[in-house]
Known about the structure:
Layout: H1 2-23, E1 28-34, H2 47-52, H3 61-69, E2 71-77, H4 82-91, H5 119-125, E3 129-135, E4 163-167, E5 180-184, E6 195-198, H6 228-250, E7 254-259, H7 291-315, E8 331-337, H8 345-349, H9 365-368, E9 372-375, E10 390-397, H10 401-409, H11 423-427, E11 438-442, E12 445-450, E13 453-457, E14 463-467, H12 483-495, E15 507-510, E16 517-518, E17 528-532, E18 535-540, E19 548-554, E20 560-564, E21 568-577, E22 582-586, E23 591-600, E24 604-621, E25 626-639, E26 642-651, E27 655-657, E28 662-667, E29 673-681, E30 684-689, E31 700-711, E32 719-721, E33 727-732, E34 736-741
Parallel strand pairs: 1-7, 1-8, 2-10, 3-4, 3-7, 15-19, 16-20, 19-21, 20-22, 21-23, 22-24, 23-24, 24-25, 25-26, 25-27, 26-28, 26-29, 27-29, 28-30, 29-31
Antiparallel strand pairs: 2-9, 4-5, 5-6, 8-9, 11-12, 12-13, 13-14, 17-18, 31-34, 32-33, 33-34
Amino acid sequence: MKKKTLFLTCALMVLAASWMHASSKRPNILYFYVDDMGWGSIAPNGQAERKAEGLPHLITPTLDRFAAEGVNFSRGYGCTVCSPARSSQQTGFHQGHTFADQNNPDNAMKAIRTEDITMGDVLSEAGYVTGYWGKWGYGGSKDQPNPEILNIQTLPTSHGYQHVLAELHHVRAHTFFQPTLWKAPAAPGARGGMELVPNAMERYMNRKDYPNEPALQNHPDYPETAYCDDMYAMAAMDFVRVQSQNYNTTGQPFFGLLAVQVPHSPFDEVEELPEWDKAYRNASFFNELQPQSKQWAAMISRIDGHFANILAALEDPNGDGDTSDSVADDTYVIFQSDNGGPGGKSRSEFDANGGLREIKGRIEEGGIRTPLMIRLAKNFSERSSLKAGTSTDIILDVTDMLPTFCDLAGVETPLGVDGVSMAPTLTGKGHQRTRDFLIHEAGNGQSIIRGKDKLIRRKDGTFELYDLVADHAEAWDIASKHPSLVAELKALMLGERVDEPKGFSNTYHNWKGSNASLAHEADNWSDFVYANEGITYTTDDGAPQVSWTAHMINSSGEANHAVANKDLEFLALHIGGEQAAQSLVLDPYIKLTGRNEIRIANHGSLTVNQGKVSSLRWIEIANGGSLKGNGEIEGDVYNAGTLTSTDQLQLSADFRAAKKSTMTLAVSDEASLKVAGEAHLGGELSITLARRFKPKKGDSYTILSAANVSGKFGNAQKEVVANNGARFKIEYSKSTVDLIAL
Length: 742
């Protein structure tokens, strides 16, 4: 099923990637991902102020430089603990939908499944060279020193990552001196394409290209078993050196994700390294700190030095001192933590969580808000309004990374993910879509964040409401003052499946019905089974439901249509054909819901007959797709194909047309298309007239109304010719599009 799913979602990606590779370079993406580093642990979120006041502060020259050269997202969010953070990061689904929504001792069950499409899957399919180093956390046993592969389908090598040095079990990642690590590429015949290698420093001895040398690999007291983050960082640096030079010669972009274990516990192991506290030798405050604070700070300063080496490899790929071959301006660099910081003395002595309430594992801001900075690729961000050295309160969630990377790579985002691409904001090109809310789950409750408002649902069923702008520390519960807002947010939150049992997630289904089959019948859809090593964890063999990610694809050579004579609900629905048309026809007054997305792709069509098409986010009409009929469309509509109103079509949100789109409207006494929000026009307008409709010269007809009209159709001479040959002049006002008969 995975290969078919990838083909369906990536067929256009490969074509787009090939075209873009031939015509221009695409940006590289380098992603630094740390473990348990609190929101207040970077300069713009508090450390710079502490330094200025002479208080204990982290010494991180590379991250300080990163803050000066990049943009700090002060409302950046991760998850509450390790596994869901990585699952949401890789798949773009929040904890209500992703399979690994909690930590789980069963490392085979806690998985990224075959059908889940990850960053590595998408970017490798798009022609990127991909690398992953550090804590993966899925698919292997916890044995020391010889773990085994437990679940091949969840390995990084099974999800598009070509160069890997990683830990596959979170318990093994609870030491920095595990004796072996998993590596790819591997020897021929290695299970899952990965092999165990010694965690040792020999391969990095006597290297001369580490201007910042936190590993001190030549020191006689360096441990025989390496500090694993030293190994991860050095492997990442070698990858960046090689691929940066490759980028300069071939134009092939790269994606690298360094997911270090620092500064997760155990903290004391850093003291086994030579000169472990070197960065703080001249810090007057250091000797006054508690041991855990010293260790924690040293861990962060150590990885900061590794970051410096990797960034230096971007700036001087061949290490000859000449930076004319730098690819830094062609590379987006992201720094983020998986979740909030832990408790302990580091939280109090360094204010590591920046005054936020609670710690990792909790639903409060201290558990889910994380440090997040992005250094823009200057050669690809010339129009961006984001400025280096500034902070923004734009909300950016870990689930947004996958769709953002897809956009930056110029490929299609996997169907129905919860994240929203921030690429238009980073590049300054295209339309920035909005995300209405964020969802998180933790051991002490669940939350929904919408703008400034955050609703927490406690385990006992009570609710708390906070204004995060006025009260970022969540000190004042205002739920009793806003009962209607609590009810509204509660309904949205529960609709996102936060109260489902552990292991509940979206499931994937493909259409297999014959021509004129009924869309609600279970037999017309493929079943979903998640199983591993003879154990079945999830099955879904019923009729469509709101947790389905569904592809209605016609793979035959003849046109096919499906009929909906009962209401249908999906998490997301894709309608399209590989060669011949696939259509879905709604009987009168039928409602179709795609909670996250309805995507009408090439050779796909959707017909509405006085019914409703609904999405909390958007209905996407791709090039070669069409939406036609009359009734109500609930959700933003993005049209790059054909939109046809046969009578009256009402849009309850915004409408946005691409330059190469088509809109066909009927001319009558009322507007054929009514948009409650903004209508941004583009593409070609065509019109139809009823047989007996006889316009008189000079007569005016409103064909489109909206709260605000922007843009214009691309019709030559601002004229349109009807199906019977009648000609009209197109006129625009702030809220209507009118036709004047000629």
